[in-house]
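User: Show me a protein chain along with its predicted structure.
Assistant: Here is one chain, sequence first, then structure tokens.
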Amino acid sequence: MTNNKPDPAKMERILAEQRAYNATREKGYREQALKLYPWVCGRCTREFTHKNVRELTVHHKDHDHDNNPSDGSNWELLCIYCHDEEHTKFVNFVRYGSGADEVEAPATHNPFAGLKEKMDKEKK
């Protein structure tokens, strides 16, 4: 009978190699993106400085981390929170589909109905 348990030392070595590869790859396109684009989150427009730029990440628009054109056309800078949200949306899209086949009923409630008249009445 063979032992099917993974070798912890081998697993650690493989994980360390992958982390090193990811860090090297990321450093290249991250440095380029930070030179190309203003340090602003592309979603929430939060601005970054040298003090907090570590919270600004590079998002690959097509989700392919190996697609790194030098003009930066596949990148956008996102804060860590918006980047996490963007990946959550992508995972949900893959898992559940776009829902484009479903037609939503139009909204029937208008919360601002009559607002102009109410404001005009208060001015008088």
